[in-house]
Amino acid sequence: MTDQTLAGRIVLVTGASSGIGAHLALAAAQAGAGVALAARRTDRLADLVGQIQAAGGKALAVAMDVEDEASVIAAYDAVEAGLGTPDAVIANAGISIQGSALDIAIDDFDKVLAVNTRGMFLTAREGARRMIAAGSPASGRGRVLLVASIGAHTVLPGLTPYCTSKAGTAMMGKSLAREWARKGINVNVLCPGYIRTELNSDWFDQEGGQKLVASFPRKRLMAESDLAPMALHLCSDASATITGGVFTVDDGQSL
């Protein structure tokens, strides 16, 4: 057994329709987990579910709007009916709206916090409730991983709402870890650096993006797959004594 095996586990991943969420869901399946993929629109999850199932894995797509508590609860109900109770949750769903703090619409500010902070809390809390009911205080196998950003501790210009929400995520993870320490649930936070995705690759090929990359110590971007080793470890049995941690995985970009 390696420290990244998830055999016998059920992992719920939010924001699984693209980017980091999709890659972590696939990595969890490859590590042996049954994976519930959550997003607002399940049609965007069909290809990934099919890919996992074609490789012999178990996968289920569920609709979840992380801002809406009723939607979160209904999604967990669907996961329990289709796969069983999740014993690991990767809360990854998030958005970003760029703009000057002097000019950004307050509705946009509220939207970022509603998804990135409120949604993170609702996802983690409902997962914890299910884990406790399923026996995590005795088993100690509950895992919650909140996906934040280097914006939790490093200023990203033009992204004040986003950085505010991610700093909140980091403290939320530590607070929940303390509160659930005797509930058999470990809570940790992952802070990724800049990653090339389908949405931003064009910008990183332009002058502004190239200047940003040139400012990094290693002068390069990360890939989504670079996050998998840490994420899998924090969802595995090998992380039994790791809780309340905030782990930066950014290839030194924030140094």
List keywords for this structure.
Rossmann fold; 7-stranded parallel beta sheet; 7 strands; 42% helix; D-xylose 1-dehydrogenase
Number of domains: 1
**How many H/I helical runs?**
9
Gap from first CA to last CA: 34 Å
Question: Biggest sheet: strands side by side, in what order?
Answer: 3-2-1-4-5-6-7
What is the CATH architecture annotation? 3-Layer(aba) Sandwich
Q: Which bin fits the share of residues in helices?
A: 40-55%
Determine the CATH superfamily: NAD(P)-binding Rossmann-like Domain
The assigned structural class equals alpha/beta
What is the CATH T-level topology?
A: Rossmann fold
Rounded average pLDDT = 95
Q: State the total count of DSSP E strands.
A: 7
In N-to-C order, the SSE pattern is: EHEHEHEHHEHEHHHE
| Strand content range | 5-15%
User: Low-confidence runs (pLDDT<50, min 5 residues)?
Assistant: none
Pfam family, one: adh_short_C2
GO molecular function: D-xylose 1-dehydrogenase (NAD+) activity
Keywords: Oxidoreductase
EC number: 1.1.1.175
